[in-house]
Amino acid sequence: MARRRLQEEKEAERALLEEEMRRIAHEEKCKAEERAKTMAALQSDIVAQINQKRTWKVLQKKAATEEFERCQMAEKEYVRLAREFTIDCPPEPNYGRKTTQWYT
To answer: Can you tell which superkingdom this protein's organism belongs to (predicted)?
Structure first.
């Protein structure tokens, strides 16, 4: 009878230990899943930031290119207008050159 009671106590203790082990395993599994979700969220945030930075750099490069092209067009227009202006103006008088023959 003492043996039976001792056996039952061992069985009960074993059942309690198994239940405790299952509970601990479940907690560890939940923690691992939570960590995996957190890591996935962090990874997606990092990827989003990298993509945003790349997009920003592309937009900056595009804006700089457009500004450069606009400046080139303005320079060409300036040169064209300067040429047009010099064509329309009479030549500057050259006072250093004698044009009359009054001294002869």
So the answer is: Eukaryota
